[in-house]
């Protein structure tokens, strides 16, 4: 969570009938062939799409069904201006998930904050969450000037914690009473520190030396 801006994945689910002994092998093969003709292979195509004024309402409905908190109109209005930082996730042309981010600058650090990342319950385990998180990583790679990615996760959300830890996120602190209307109300702050490329390090080093020379 292979990475492109608009990736797509196809999963094929098939079954087979195996013979149990030599005497019934031919019969089992006949049954298998018959069932194979009757069976339609199911294709699951996942892809990301842009957030626009025309599908903003779909995001509102999605968030209402996925998250236990309510987001105000300003939240959605601001998302229309963030470009690639907000994406809808489609499964067979149906909106079933979304990721929404922003860039935070504080304490001389430039970080990407994941505001929401969620998928409807019946469409989980299909790689949609991975696809959206990989989109976030790709954005940071393209930007080249983001120190880390971080987000809040409710302390009892073991599924989300396990998911993010698989991608290198670590608990760095606890935000007490972060969720005012939820129980438990505390949240873990998870962060994934990004490694700068050698070229970026070289640029940073050169800039630092130049600054020192200016002082001298």
Automatic annotation (TrEMBL):
Where is this chain's protein located in or outside the cell?
Answer: Cytoplasm
Keywords, sorted A to Z: Acyltransferase, Cytoplasm, Transferase
**Reactions accelerated catalytically:** N-terminal L-methionyl-L-seryl-[protein] + acetyl-CoA = N-terminal N(alpha)-acetyl-L-methionyl-L-seryl-[protein] + CoA + H(+); N-terminal L-methionyl-L-threonyl-[protein] + acetyl-CoA = N-terminal N(alpha)-acetyl-L-methionyl-L-threonyl-[protein] + CoA + H(+); N-terminal L-methionyl-L-leucyl-[protein] + acetyl-CoA = N-terminal N(alpha)-acetyl-L-methionyl-L-leucyl-[protein] + CoA + H(+); N-terminal L-methionyl-L-alanyl-[protein] + acetyl-CoA = N-terminal N(alpha)-acetyl-L-methionyl-L-alanyl-[protein] + CoA + H(+)
A Gene Ontology cellular component where this protein is annotated is: NatA complex
Alphabetical GO biological process terms: mitotic sister chromatid cohesion
* Membrane spanning stretches: none
Q: What class of enzyme is it?
A: transferase
EC number, as in UniProt: 2.3.1.258
Q: Which residues form the N-acetyltransferase domain?
A: 46-195
Q: Name one GO molecular function term.
A: protein N-terminal-methionine acetyltransferase activity
Kindly give the SUPFAM superfamilies that the UniProt entry links to this protein.
Answer: Acyl-CoA N-acyltransferases (Nat)
Task: Write down what this protein is called.
Answer: N-terminal methionine N(alpha)-acetyltransferase NatE
Q: Which organism is it from?
A: Didymodactylos carnosus
